[in-house]
Amino acid sequence: MIDPLSRGIGRTSAFGPGAATAPPAVANPKTVPGRRVAFFGHDLAEPTVRKRVDAIREAGWSVVVYAFERARPGGAATPREADDTVPLGRTVDRNYASRLPRLALGILRALRRGPDLRAADVIYVRNLDMALVAWTSSRLAGSRARLVYEVLDIQRLMVRPDAPGWIARTVERWLLRRSALLVVSAPDFIDRYFRPVQGFTGAWHLLENKVMGHRLGEVADRLDRTRAAEPPWVIGWFGTLRCRRSLTLLAAIADALGDSVRIVLAGRLSEEDIAPHMLAETLDGRANMAFRGPYANPRDLPEIYSGIHFSWAVDYLDDGLNSDWLLPNRLYEGGLCGALTLARASTATGRYAVAEGLGWAFPEPLADSVTAFLRTLTPAVYAQRHARLLACDLATFVDVGGMRDLLVRVD
């Protein structure tokens, strides 16, 4: 496996063993005179979109955000910064056929800000459909800005063996040849997909799903990384909850271990994958399982991770493909907040967790493996592994300069 830090920041600062707070965030740099980014995002309210936009601003570049919106439960409004956000319309999740006409309308809406597109030095895009919108609108506007193409997940469409999959891969290869830089969040995306499937040989940059360094000030004084090394063992599954199989596995673990385990869920439920009634039925009658609902990231991380022994970093949504290759946010957020990782063996997440001393990786059948592990786990073994986690360097969990390094490569 490629060393995830070999292409990014060095290991410079650390949490001392038993430390309860993080070091202060890096000081804000001055704005880079005249350097501008046009950022195209698939969903303005998506936390990772906001995370990238904030990081670009923190690197000193000005940003105009061109973004679609997705329908929100209860019709909740999407936050927007009126002066530098261009709404492109509303799209639907995973329905590519109905999305195409809306993408075309998005191009027309982006062109209303043609002068901003022409003034941009870099066009930064998330995902294939946004790359098409960005490339078309920027070139029609007369922009010659360099294109940065970021991929945080290899969508299942991209690996389908049928005609739609072939078309999507062909379009992506065309865009890759026109991109100045490919950005990925895990090395396996290069080794397992872009090189062998797409024949990609261009420049790429690793930007892991770490907690952004400039946001540490919001949580540093509230982080409590200490843990009582004793049952009941508490497992937290946090973030966007998509993996139906994980929900089933956690319920099986809860049933097998009873009062010796507690399972806490928090975040946004992906209703396309886990229906609300399924979650309700799973929780019903299980006193050792609870759902806390949505939370703000990173503001609420200290509260939701408080007392959590283990972070559930298991995903089966695209088993054998993207689920095996990714390095999720919860891997880094859990470590920062003092929770050890539970992962699947033979996945990038599992290999990373074991190699970095962040937790354990288990073979299939997973529910049986995790249950047997927790039944025999002693406080001494947990305390020893937890002490190793607390001794990890800050750079293991926190990005203190990745976006600046990235933009330097295309400046």
Describe what this molecule looks like in 3D.
36% of the residues lie in helices and 19% in strands. The chain is α/β, with parallel strands linked by helices and 411 residues long. The chain has two domains: 171 residues, Glycogen Phosphorylase B (Rossmann fold, 3-Layer(aba) Sandwich); 179 residues, 3-Layer(aba) Sandwich (Rossmann fold). The strands form three sheets. Strands 3-2-1-4-5-6-7 form a seven-stranded parallel sheet, with helices on both faces. A six-stranded parallel sheet has the order 11-10-9-12-13-14, sandwiched between helices. It has a two-stranded parallel sheet with strand order 8-15. Helix 2 packs parallel to helix 4, helix 4 crosses helix 5 and helix 7 runs parallel beside helix 13. The N terminus is likely disordered. It comes from Methylobacterium fujisawaense.
